[in-house]
Amino acid sequence: MNSTTLDAAYWYALLISFVLPVIVGLVTTRVTHAGTKAVLLLALVAVESFIVELTAGGPGWDIGSALVLTLVSFVMAVAAHFGLWKPTGVTRRAQDAFAKAA
Predict the structure, then answer these.
(1) Which is nearest to 20 in space by CA: 50, 47, 44, 52?
(2) Are 70 and 49 in contact (CB under 8 A)?
(3) What is the rounded distance in angstroms from the CA atom of residue 63 to the CA atom of residue 54?
(4) Spatial distance between the Cα atoms of 61 and 79, rounded to a whole number of angstroms
(5) How far is 78 from 12, CA to CA, in rounded Å?
(6) 16-61 pLDDT per residue, tens
(7) Which of 2, 68, 81, 91 is the most exposed place for a label (fewest CB within 10 A)?
C-alpha cells in the first residue's frame, strides 16, 4: 500500500491560502475590478506556493509540485472567499479598513 504524507509546510500553505482573500481585501478597494483582485490573489498564491516548495523538506525543488500547490491553493482561496469571507462581510470590512472618510 502506498501512503502519501504532506510536510508541515504544505499544511501551512493551505492555511495561508484560507486567509489570503482577506489580505487582498485589505490592499484593494471596493471599486477595484474583480479581475484585478483575482490576478492579485493568484499572484500571492503562486508566490506562496513556490516559497513553500523551496522550503519544504525533500529531494530538491519540483516545479510540478509548486504548480499543483498553486492550483489547489487558488481554488481553496476562492472557495474561502465566496463560501465564508464574503457572506459574513469580512471582505467588505477589510476593504473599508483603510478607506478614508470623505
Answers:
(1) 44
(2) yes
(3) 10
(4) 28
(5) 17
(6) 999 999 999 888 888 889 999 999 999 999 999 999 888 876 677 7
(7) 2
